[in-house]
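Support request from a user on the community tier.

User writes: "When I paste my structure tokens into the form, the page sometimes reloads and wipes my input. The last time it worked, I copied everything first. Here is what I submitted, just in case something in the input itself triggers the reload:"
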């Protein structure tokens, strides 16, 4: 079968010119003689234009762990969700948004796939699987042998922060983090940042359990826990504090400011996620950038692989992170 390249060689013109002539591009300024040569070559070679079939319409449910109100307390999940939605729009995929609670009660119309954003237990994953086996999790991996997942390695992110602190000669380091439960369940999840902080600091023989504070992943708890740390260690403050996410770190900065403690001169602070406001707080927040929008985009791509290419083997994709140094750390 003749190709555009064959026509271009026979007519003595470029591939682009052939393509534009055969597609009747009105903006092409080629001479009539050139167009004639292209059409004659195509006729001689019995060229037949390939008609690409349109992909069937795809309908996806995007199931969120957080409500939109809860997202405002933790912009991390909002950014992932926007990445999912923008990729769906770019790929012409129609989608419906649900919070997990509402999804359980919703009328389940035919769904080609589900993208689940947030923390989901293995039990919840099986419930979603009953709707469709084309299922991708973002920010959790209930069963990597069965389900596709897109994750960030928070262990490595934590080590990046601690390595940076130690390189700056900061060895007395506090931790302010959060605890979470699966939605509609009471089981408390182990946080990889807290576990890694403990293991790393013990390895360095610098771990102090009295400098570890946990609450909820909110600005309010970040501020409350930092105030508690300042009260309990006012005579011997740590040199640095690692906040498990930027939202808590913002609360930490607020508490330090209200107690007239200079950042980073008195205490360095570093968060995780690099949410949009991190660069605008004072001082601007050092953090680990998590590529949340890429996580959302990748989830859509994984789902399309299953739908369009028939992939059956599960994939677990880990998105890299990057340390971002700003003014809240030395």
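"...and here is what came back when it finally went through:"
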């Amino acid at each position: 079968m003749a190709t555009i390249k064959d026509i271009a060689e026979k007519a003595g013109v470029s591939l682009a010119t052939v393509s534009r002539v055969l597609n009747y591009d009105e903006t092409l300024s080629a001479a009539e003689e050139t167009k004639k040569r292209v059409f004659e070559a195509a006729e001689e070679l019995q060229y037949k234009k390939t008609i690409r079939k349109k992909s069937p319409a795809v309908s996806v449910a995007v199931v969120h762990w957080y409500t939109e109100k809860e997202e405002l307390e933790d912009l991390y999940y909002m950014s992932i969700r926007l990445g999912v939605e923008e990729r769906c729009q770019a790929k012409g995929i129609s989608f419906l948004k649900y919070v997990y609670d509402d999804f359980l009660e919703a009328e389940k119309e035919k769904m080609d796939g589900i993208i689940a954003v947030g923390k989901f237990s293995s039990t919840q994953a099986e419930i979603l699987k009953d709707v469709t086996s084309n299922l991708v999790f973002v920010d959790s991996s209930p069963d990597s042998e069965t389900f596709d997942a897109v994750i960030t390695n928070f262990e490595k992110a934590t080590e990046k922060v601690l390595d940076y602190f130690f390189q700056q000669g900061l060895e007395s380091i506090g931790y302010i983090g959060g605890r979470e439960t699966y939605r509609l369940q009471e089981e408390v999840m182990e946080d990889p940042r807290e576990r890694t902080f403990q293991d790393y600091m013990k390895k360095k023989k610098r771990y102090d359990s009295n400098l570890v504070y946990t609450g909820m992943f909110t600005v309010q708890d970040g501020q409350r826990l930092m105030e508690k740390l300042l009260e309990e260690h006012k005579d011997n403050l740590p040199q640095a504090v690692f906040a498990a996410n930027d939202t808590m770190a913002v609360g930490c900065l607020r508490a330090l400011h209200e107690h007239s403690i200079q950042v980073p001169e008195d205490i360095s602070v570093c968060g995780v996620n690099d949410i949009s406001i991190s660069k605008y707080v004072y001082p601007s927040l050092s953090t680990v950038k998590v590529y949340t929008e890429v996580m959302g985009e990748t989830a859509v791509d994984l789902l399309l692989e299953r739908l369009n290419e028939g992939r059956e083997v599960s994939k677990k994709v880990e998105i890299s992170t990057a340390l971002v140094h700003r003014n809240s750390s030395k």
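Agent notes: The reload is a front-end session timeout and is unrelated to the input. The CA atoms of residues 119 and 140 lie 5 Å apart. The longest helix spans residues 292-309. Escalated to web team.
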